[in-house]
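pinging the channel bc i need a second pair of eyes. not urgent but kinda urgent?? the chain im working w is below, pasted from the shared doc
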Amino acid sequence: MKIHDLSPAQGSRKKRKRVGRGPGSGHGKTSCRGHKGQKSRSGGGPRLGFEGGQMPLQRRLPKRGFTNIFKKEYNIININELNRFAPDSILDREALKAAGLVKKVRDGIKLLGKGEILQPVVIKVHKVSRTAMKKIEAAGGKVEVI
């Protein structure tokens, strides 16, 4: 057997259906869409989720919950992430953003008390937890609530 004798297995390769190419092709005129009706038109067919007039799934399921449109979203920072800064440095939104701790600016910054802080820092945030405030003050730092 030589390379020019190779061919794909019988029935494994199928010709593409080319519609709308005249009556001799067998797929001309209506291009396999039939006559008239919704599915014969361009852009035709029911919308996504349409179940033939049956009550659709998204309307059969009960509505649950409530979304508060006035909810505030805070950037969360833990005090163990503040160890990368030099002692006695002043940390505000710009300094935290430059360090990569705050990426997208939301409604404010909240400081949480996970981990330990090793050096004193002055940090300006919008909200702070009690444990975070105690740990920073114990390390000799200061928290300013904006």
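so The chain has a mean pLDDT of 90. and The longest helix spans residues 130-138. — does that match what u expected or am i reading it wrong
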